[in-house]
Amino acid sequence: MANMNVTTINTLDLMEALHQAASSLDQAIQMDENYLDLSVLLQVQQYDQPTASGNLDSDYPGVEDPRIGMSSVDEIGSIKKIPLPPELVEQFGPKKNHDPNFPSNNCGLMAPELRTIQSSQTASVFGEMHLIPEPLFSIPSDNVHILSIRNADNGRIFMAGKDGCLYELHYQAEDGWFSRKCRKINHSKGKLSTIMMSFYYFSASDDAAVVRISIDNSRNILYTQSEAGTLQVFDMGEDGMSMSRVASLSQDSIVQKAALIAKMVDKSNFKPIIHIAAIPREESVNIHLVAVTHTGMRLYFTTVPLGNTRGRPYTLSLVHTRLPPGYSARAPPQRPSNVHTALYTKGTLMLAASQSEDSDLLWTIASDAFPFKKHLQETHEMRPLDGRTWAIEEVPNELLGAVPLSFTDGLKPDPPAVVTQHMRSNRKFVIINSQGSYILTKQNPSDKLRQLLLNFGPTSVEVEAYFQRHQEQAFATCLLLACNQSVTEQQVSELATAAFFRYGGDPKYNYDVTLAAANSPYDVHPGSGLGSVSRFMGAGTSIHPGMPNQISTPIPNVTRHMSFGYNTTLSGPSGGQASEVIFSNRFHGLCLYLARILRPIWNFRMVIEYPIKTEKGMEELLGSRCNSDDISWVLNKLKDLKDFVDRNSQFTSPLLSEGSFTQSLQRSPRARLGLQRAADGDDQSMRRLQAEADCQENNYLKQLQILINISCEALGLWHILCTHRFHIIVKNLTKEQQNVLRHMTFRHFVTQGKEMSHALITSLIGMYLNDNAVTDAISARLREVCPAFYSYEDHIYSKANEMLKTATGTQHSSVEREKLLAEALTKYKQISAQLDLPTVCRQFSAVRFYRGIVDLALTSAETRDPQGFAVHFYDNGEPSEDTQGMCAYRLRMDCYKCITETLDFLLSTSLSHPQSPSVPSSPGPPPAPDPNRLTNREAQIYVDEVFSLALKSQDKMFHICLYDWLIMKQLSEKLLEIQSPYLEPYLKRKADMNHLETLDLLWKYYEKIQNYAAAANILDKLAGQAGEIPLSKRMEYLSRAIMCAKGCTRLTYPSTDGEFLHQLEEKMEVAQLQLNISEALHRNKGIPEVDEALIRLNSQLIDINTLYAEFADRFDLSECKLAIIHCAGYHDPTMVEALWQDIIDKEFQNSQHLDTQARMKTLNQKLVNLGRIYATSEKCFPLAFLVKLLERRCCECNLDVADLSLVFRTLQDTGITLPRLHEIYDRLYKSKDFCWKTLKKPFHLLEVIEKLLRSFAESPNVVPAYDRRHFTTTSLDAIAFYLVELQSESTAGGTVSFLMKNFKDIQARLERFI
């Protein structure tokens, strides 16, 4: 595969590739998780429904046929014999022939409870092993022979007594009040054992002796076996610190139940039991104990019902009987017999069977060769041993790396050896007999393939069969060998590489899913429920066309299963639906091996929380879940795989030529038949489909390569962080970043952890800067280890940060400081496209380098949108479908935000009050003021500097952003002072969107530049704008529009000169009417209809017709109707008189509760206000009608008694002249209307005329000089007429005499004026 630099890949493409490859890895990990529990492999469904196995050929498949791929492959690799020293042989000689229990098992080497030992012994327990000459603890045995000693992981020591009792050696650091430092506890007899005499136990039978102890540390259960074969169960409690016997099962009961299960086997095969072994949770969740008989029979037990994974033991039930090899129909006749020593551990069983007095036959039975099967399948092997075996034990096998295999919480056993073989060294077993010690090394699956490659070569039938049988597992195992770069394994690596590519095959187009499934030589099980792992397999088939499969005869004893034992519909790596491409085995093997390397860390959190005691109390710190050694181990494995992929360019398949394509068809008859059905023999179509398959697999292989590279770099970064006080680096992150990291898995870190990695690196670099250390070394190291996470741009960023940090030092002069800041700015501008701009701008702000913020932000905006997509997006109205332009627009706005935020800060500081003294918290002098705090004056200077620099920019989008900020900050005056070609288009664009604030600014802008016509048009538009603009504000707009129109010498309105002004004035008059109606309705606010009308009146300007019909007339607003008629110039005397009558009547009615003087005053004010409006309009001010109506109402209300001159004086106040009023009154009197007699005031009008003329006689100046003589003459004539009329009255009363006297007095005064 060609090397590729991931830093050169487009970010979006890189993220997509990582996600695709990570999904493939998830599927591979899920495949490795689909192994079955031992209880399922043994077909155990209920604890009370036991089963049996071992009697079928498939239980122990034969491996003699080379086509199975297992011939000449040993289960046990090397056997190293260490003879006993002659001195020990000499000592053993006389004993071994007389003591059947020799060697004694009543001694043990175990790890004690550390805290107790450390408390009792001051010597260090670490480092070298030291033999203490004196025992720390010792107790008497009370004449009880100890046959076996075992210890639990928590330090408890148990002993099997020949008296049939289980003892515990309890020890503690010091003696207690009621307990000794060391004592013996009998868990079989209870407390009675502490007071009974020792001779009590002499009567115990040898058959009752406890001969074996086995402890399940995962469940805290202890099992014992007596000489008679009785099994007992002891519950050590949930915490492993208590003890109680809960169940027991005799040998007869066991034999009887086993015989019922395996009826074809004689009962004698089920006894005696020669070995018991606890099965921990790591091996099985449901099976708890296995017992081995002298014929190799395995009896499996459970202590709780199946599925009760957390319940405490309360029973002991036989659930399965496993027959040893030799019981199937076609098995060889040899079976295990005379087995006297056995060991069962982690699925491997070793049996030492007596051949003669001085030789044994070692049987090794294991299931490692058949992982992921639906039932238990095992291989078996026999090896002769010299001497009689005394004991068999396994050497503890630790992980090569300390990273746990998985975290299943005991709900699932550990995965098969094929999954974890790269993490563990070979299992080793020690056999001790009279000849010495034998160290046996059990081979891993990779060792078996290694043996085949070395013995037969990669082109052999045996190797070919091995790959065909194990498929993906074989290729993953092969990669383990091929990636080994050890010098001693170079030959094996080359052989494995050759085999990997020889049998890896090519991707194939899935031409016919149904046909492929029907012709598959493996079983397909649609119900296996493994759709989530299907992307690694063929659609409906488990064999891949690239594999050589031309075997002429059937492979004997091979179960028809897919690889791993999985069977599922094929899907490609892109999804869960059936794919048209079947990927090659090399792709599957690569996915599996990569998944197994990363499995311990892939889906697990990278950090753990641990408490630490500080001065402030307990504090939770975040530390790395893996230490640097663990990470190094995983990283080295991954680097080996990376090197393998990089140096093998043939990993990606070239497009097949015609010859190679024909060869592939000959190699796959099934694919050829599918092609014929799909393309009807069209070679060109077949070649095209094959090319598509090659291309698709190549793409996914490249994605995996990218994932491998990025994972290597991520691990390298993780390793560097662990070597630099990881918890301090994390502590310097923000709380939000810490919370994200707290839940981040390695998978998330690789695929989506760019921001987190940047934060961690920034924190790491910050540690160096805080220590005033140079960052060149760590930067170079980061660039070498993880260039995808720390690129050249990141190096420049770190260097600029270092300069910025140096510039903050007080030891530099202002000139040096400015120079350092300028250099830092230059470096930041070099990487402005990838820069974390807000962070840098905050740093600039901290050192008051505000001009650097403007320069850097504008540069960043330009580099992030070099082609000007944002301007195009803005100029075209910001269409939603232009996603590219929208993205560029947002990028630019993010950059400009740094400048506006700086202006925000400086502006608020310049306007803030000086820091006022606070209440002191303690006595003493006040604290010194902060020298770094900006003063108001300094802030204002910086505001002017930043604003001046900003306005010099030719960046159109920045100007738009700046104008938006000024409007938002209500700095409209500042905005209107700007002289820029971008301002008017900006305001007009905003105005076109009916943005009221911008329209308001636009007319002010036009007024400022003396474009009054445009200002008047904008104001007119504002006045008519729909929305929640108060009516008073609309009238203000109209008033300003009229002023602008009057000030404009040349209107741009499309009509004759003056027409626009006339229209504005008419609008103003109608608006005034609308205001009057609104004020009138406001008096009745609270009524729903009125409130609705008020809302409507304040939402828009309404035409005059609508005002009359829908408001004035609807709500009976007479004054408003009169005003509308007056404004419209409408002439209807009857309507006008009716409106006046309604107005006057309402006024009299509304004032009837007042006294006479107040009522007269109110009436006067109303008539004066209306008269001044309408007195000049005869159409809307019928004077004669009003005089008559008012005088009648005054008579009716007896207001004339108080003041006869009320009406004419009120009308006189409206501007009606005295001669005109006398004319009206005179005409009314001469009309002789009968109404006055009805009111019983026949002389009322004469009385009023008398008052009117007397007012003239007493104050002739009320009539203008030019009209005074004429009015005097007219008055004298009228008085003469009035006197004649009064003299002719038939009834001469006091009123008539009074009037005649007064008229004569007035007459005399007026005659003097002539």
Walkthrough of the structure:
The chain is α+β, with helices and mostly antiparallel strands. Helix content is 48%, strand content 11%. It contains 48 helices and 25 strands. The strands form seven sheets. A five-stranded mixed sheet has the order 1-14-13-12-11, with helices on one face. A four-stranded antiparallel sheet has the order 2-21-20-19, with no helix packed on it. A four-stranded antiparallel sheet has the order 3-4-5-6, with no helix packed on it. The chain is elongated, with a radius of gyration of 54 Å. It starts with 10 loop residues before the first helix and ends with a helix. Residues 1-8, 119-126, 191-204, 513-579 and 653-679 have low confidence and may be disordered. It is found in: Nucleus membrane; Nucleus, Nuclear pore complex. This is Nuclear pore complex protein Nup155. Its main location: nucleus. Residues 914-934 are annotated as: Disordered. Keywords: Disulfide bond, Glycoprotein, Membrane, mRNA transport, Nuclear pore complex, Nucleus, Phosphoprotein, Protein transport, Translocation, Transport.
